[in-house]
Amino acid sequence: MFQFADVILPLPLSKYYTYRIPEELQSDMRPGCRVIVPFGRKKYYTAIVVHIHPYAPADYETKDILTLLDESPILRRPQLKFWEWIAEYYLCSVGDVYKAALPSGLKLESETLISPNPDYEEDEDNRLKDREAALLDTLSRHEKISVQDLEKESGLRNILPIVRTLLDKEAVFVSEQVKTKYRPKTEVYIKMSFGKERRDELRGIFEQLSSVKKQLKLLMAYIDMSGFMQRGELREVSKKELLKRADVTSVVLNGLLAKGILVSYTKEISRIVSMDSAEEAHHLNEFQKKALEDIISTFHNKDVTLLHGVTSSGKTEVYIHLIQEVLKQNRQVLYLVPEIALTTQLTGRLQKVFGKSLAIYHSKFSDNERVEVWNSLLLDKGIKIILGVRSSIFLPFKDLGLVIVDEEHENTYKQQDPAPRYHARNAAIILASMHGAKVLLGTATPSIESYYNALQGKFGLVEMNSRYEGMELPEIRIANTQELRRQRQMPGNFSPLLLKLSSEALKRGEQVILFQNRRGFAPMVECKLCAWVPKCKHCDVSLTYHKRYNQLVCHYCGYTYEIPRQCPACGHTSIEIRGFGTERIEEDAEQCFPEYKIARMDLDTTRTRKAYEQIIEDFQQRKSQILIGTQMVTKGLDFDNVSVVGILSADTMMNFPDFRAHERAFQLMAQVAGRAGRKNHKGTVVLQTAHPEYPLIHQIIHHDYQGMYRTQIAEREQFSYPPFFRLIYIYLKHRDEQLLNSLSRTYAACLKQVFGKRILGPDNPPVARIQTLYIRKIILKIENRASMPKVKDLLHQVQDEMLKDDRFKSVILYYDVDPM
Ligand code: ADP
Ligand code: ZN
Ligand code: ZN
User: Fold this and answer.
1) Residues 724-755: pLDDT tens digits?
2) 312, burial (CB in 10 Å: exposed 0-12, middle 13-18, buried 19+)
3) What is the largest distance, in Å, between two alpha-carbon atoms of the chain?
4) CATH says 3-109 is which class?
């Protein structure tokens, strides 16, 4: 029997900790089980067992595991391996991964419970302080209370230190208690108090109820819904549905319950939406069939294939057929999407085809729902397909056969904060290889990295170039805002061309989408007259305006510039700071089109999923005619009556201070343009820009993805960006700005000794201070062919070296590998 267990703690620790397994737990202990362990002073955590073995650690004395929480593992073995990979690659701790991976209902929170000591007597020489006395007073009303609740009830703040002194004085006890947060969901159901065989008695009951019309109505509704008078089994009727159907209140129901005619019962129900499959997969057209065959054949010698299919080519149907192939082998499928709230149409379609074998893992799901999905995968309850957002890569899959990453170019696949800062597409590729599964990346606008991998032969490549039902791609027309402004023909946000086409479309009863890049982006400086934008001499990205310093800053190298008084391009003194949001566009649109209903969709108007769905539904049912929105309108929406799309400012996207700005601008514009057009009716896109001469604009007009790719990949190579170089950002945070400045300079200098010119910075990131912490960023640009384990070793060495300096102990340091 093994006496020791290595465990993962939910803390950013660089290694596993070893605990002794008490004898009585030894026979039940398994890797993947949760245990409660003490760590630090008086702290208890839920940890996960990784290994069990007979070796005591050499350098510290072990503590005992307190409790074993599970009879069987809540993780499958490959998951631990996957966590370790993520921690290693993204330079974080396995504890960070553990925190991100498990739904919090499974993480079991440790709440410290304290109780008053009934035998306590105040010591004359060591009287209680006021705050201590006040706390003890509140506490004495309880037998046991958590620190959290006590804090609330006493109205005192930050009571932990007081609790500690009370502990020292033995006025209170502490008992740790762990409680699970998961609660099964229940629902109330209603049934007749007798069975069908006694249905003859109903007549008497009807007579009895003839004077209480509402009760009669309710009873009739029940009989109808349950099928009481028909052959076959009774259908279960929930209280909620019954009251809704009968259109009465629960007072009426209580009457029938009191008379003993109906009875109620409670039932545990699953939160996972389950629905029987009701639809067949559609027949594929010839292009889709070809694509499916090609994908399957690339899978013979490639593990990952990129499906590059124009918008509305019907990629979803291809996925569905591919999924069916995998299900035939009885293996599982993970279908990743960037954001579920944006894919109601997709969700509905998949549910209809796959019914109960599909489960959804949401970002807006409650934690209980997540636990249910987790458990049903763990217990193998028939779920074969998971449709989910990035965190669903952490679910306990048994045997994945296929991972689909839809809209693989989306940057929401990358987690920014907190650690693990992983990219779900890239991590999914690793996950798939651990299962021997294939990966299909799908998009109309591949990321430069994925397309590069495809061209290099690392990924398979399959193309679909025609839209389903031969709908044509929209015509893209340019409005030159620079010219229009100079001629004073464009006072607001809309060009005359956009106004004209929109009002014609609206008059024909068609709809219009106006697209404006995300609200509140980083402020920029621009020449009002010629639209000149300052760029960094070293990095070829637009500069960001920093109000605090009244300076322009390059976020890639940290170089700062003064704001020129005169425009270097046209010589005028018309430099201004700018940025405009969707609200202002809405106001403008209301003025231009007072007779139409306008809807705005951005982060502000779609805080809840309902709000979002309402906006979409209203627009689909043509209750609103103009839809104004940010990136949200570019995604996963299929409208059949939109004939004009306006891209209000291509420039704000192209000039965004990021080396991926043009790539993203192309992706966004191509996606939003894809919303224009209806069956047998080509749509029009009006693209407003001050730079019609930019190659990117030309590429958008001609739907020329390859052209865009060639330009961008050349720049990436020239300026040493991915996919040729790998980026690692090193962030340092501290309260004291001066100290942080000096420490981050020292740190960068130290890194430079190892990595030379591959180190840039330190500089101030776009948001240089968050919650009283100042932030500095150091960049490592490393050749793609460099050995990553070696790079990481070196990084850790420098970090260890720096930590010898005591001042560094208070600095928060973390890495962002492959930042987006
Ligand atoms: P994409 O994801 O490539 O942009 P979609 O999968 O959303 O395209 O398909 C666009 C539209 O065409 C959808 O309304 C879809 O229902 C329809 N469609 C695509 N393929 C088929 C098919 N084989 N049979 C019937 N309808 C299809
Ligand atoms: Zn720069
Ligand atoms: Zn100018």
Assistant:
1) 999 999 999 998 889 999 999 999 999 999 99
2) middle
3) 96
4) alpha beta
Mutate to test the pocket of ligand 1, among 317, 408, 440 (most ligand atoms within 8 A of CB): 317
Between the CA of 560 and the centroid of ligand 2 the distance, in Å, is: 8
Ligand 1 contact via 466 beta carbon (within 6 Å): no
Tokens of 132: 């201590």
In a 10 Å sphere around its CB, with 0-12 CB exposed, 13-18 middle and 19+ buried, how is residue 149 labelled? middle
CA of 268 to the centre of ligand 3 (A): 68
To test ligand 1's pocket by mutation, which of 283, 312, 408 has the most ligand atoms within 8 angstroms of CB? 312
313 token code pair = 């080519």
- Is residue 795 within 8 Å of residue 815, measured between CB atoms? yes
> Closest Cα to atom 4, ligand 1: which residue?
312
Residue 160 burial (CB count, 10 A): 9
Ligand 1 atom nearest residue 284's Cα? 23
Q: What is the pLDDT of residues 247-302, one digit of tens each?
A: 988 889 999 999 989 998 887 766 665 666 667 888 999 999 999 999 999 999 99
In the reported structure, the alpha carbon of residue 638 is separated from the centroid of ligand 1 by a whole-number distance in angstroms of: 9
150 with 159: CB under 8 angstroms?
yes
Q: CATH homologous superfamily of domain 475-519+582-715?
A: P-loop containing nucleotide triphosphate hydrolases (3.40.50.300)
| DSSP bridge pairs for 560 | 553
288 Cβ inside 6 Å of ligand 1: yes
Tell me: pLDDT of 441 over 50. yes
Q: What are the tokens at 212?
A: 């209480």
d(CA 221, CA 207): 16
Q: Is 285 a pocket residue for ligand 1 (Cβ < 6 Å)?
A: yes
Stretch among 146-150, 405-409, 605-609, 697-701 having the lowest mean pLDDT: 605-609
With contact defined as beta carbons under 8 Å apart, do 646 and 494 qualify?
A: yes
The ligand that comes nearest to the alpha carbon of residue 467 is: 1
For the chain, the average pLDDT equals 86
* CB of 646 closer than 6 angstroms to any ligand 1 atom: no
Q: Is 314 in the pocket of ligand 1 (CB under 6 A)?
A: yes
What would the two tokens of residue 410 be?
């989306």
Q: Under 8 Å CB-to-CB from 115, ≥6 apart: which residues?
A: 139, 142, 143, 144, 145, 172, 173, 175
What is the number of the ligand closest to the CA of 779?
2
Which residues on adjacent β-strands are paired with residue 51?
6
286-464 against 475-519+582-715: fold identical: yes
How many CA atoms, within 13 angstroms, populate the side-chain half-sphere of residue 431? 33
Which of 350, 468, 642, 680 to mutate to test ligand 1, by most ligand atoms within 8 A of the CB atom?
A: 468
CATH superfamily of this structure's domain 725-817: Ribosomal protein S10 (3.30.70.600)
Find out whether 750 is annotated in a ligand binding site. no
Distance CA 721, CA 446 (A): 17
Taking a C-beta distance cutoff of 8 angstroms, is the pair 585, 519 a contact? no
Using a cut of 0.70, tell me whether the model's pTM lies above it. yes
**Does ligand 1 come within 6 angstroms of the Cβ of 345?**
no
* Residue extents of the structural domains in the chain: 3-109, 110-179, 194-260, 286-464, 475-519+582-715, 522-579, 725-817
CATH of 286-464, one of 3.40.1370.10, 3.40.50.2000, 3.30.70.1350, 3.40.50.300: 3.40.50.300
Residue nearest to atom 9 of ligand 1 (CA): 314
Pick left, alpha or beta for residue 326 (phi over 0 → left; psi -120 to 50 → alpha; otherwise beta).
Answer: alpha
Closest atom, ligand 1, to C-alpha of 285? 23
592 is in an annotated binding site: no
| Ligand 1 atom, smallest distance to 313 CA | 3
Say if residue 554 carries a ligand binding annotation: yes
Q: Residue 478: pLDDT above 90? A: yes
